[in-house]
Amino acid sequence: MRITIIGAGNMARGIATRALAGGHTVTLTGKDPAKAARLAEELSAQAAGDAAVRAGDDSAVDPAELVVMAVPFAAAKELTASLGARLSGKVLVDISNPVDASLEALVVAPGTSAAEEIAGAAAPGTRVVKAFNTTFATTLVTGQVGGTALDVFIAGDDEPARKQVAQLVTSGGLHAVDVGALRHARELEGLQLLHMALQLSEDGYGWASTVKIVAP
Ligand SMILES: NC(=O)c1ccc[n+]([C@@H]2O[C@H](COP(=O)([O-])OP(=O)(O)OC[C@H]3O[C@@H](n4cnc5c(N)ncnc54)[C@H](OP(=O)(O)O)[C@@H]3O)[C@@H](O)[C@H]2O)c1
Fold this sequence. Notes:
By secondary structure, this protein is an alpha/beta fold. The protein has 7 helices and 10 strands. NADP nicotinamide-adenine-dinucleotide phosphate (NAP) is lined by residues 7-12, 30-32, 35, 70-73, 75, 95-97, 133, 136-137.
């Protein structure tokens, strides 16, 4: 799959690492092109077989089948609006956690979610999927916590788009959990607000925990 990741920070590194493990072609693009180029150079050592990684400019969005917004929520919404029809037909993955600075509250109104706001800002035909918001960046780099593959919860109104994201997830060695419609992003964002707040508690988990469903 041709994947473009917008952003060159911690989550771009984590998701690109898993995408390369899955044999995908990754282009990194960001507001600081030199930072994206440095990350691509660093990750290129992990690109085996058909996998490849490079840095690109804004035009890297055009050939992508799947675009990941690895930027803060407000920037993701703005970029989605400004890219407009260039995202039509593509899978647009929202990974954001719209939390306030104290990790006490969501900054989106009750009854909606960052993913739904991004979908509202997107041009018609953009297939918005929520994924990766409950996986901390460091855990994505290793792909596991305590020897168990991470769960990646996937929400979206377009079933083939959810399946495409699930394919990225499973090819990268993770476990895909399809939770259905995009409105379930509300629960995923609320769950991760709690998960993030727990990191700050006295016996916090050091941003090394993950959210997982365990079944017999
Ligand atoms: N970190 C986690 O463990 C984690 C887990 C799940 C979800 N998330 C979500 O993932 C997203 C990215 O988080 P991160 O931890 O990767 O953050 P990060 O390390 O700070 O990286 C953010 C990236 O976004 C770019 N950026 C910031 N503002 C921008 C703007 N206005 N326009 C374009 N690009 C902009 C930054 O560029 P510069 O460096 O040049 O400023 C950087 O490349 C966030 O929405 C976050 O809620 C994070």
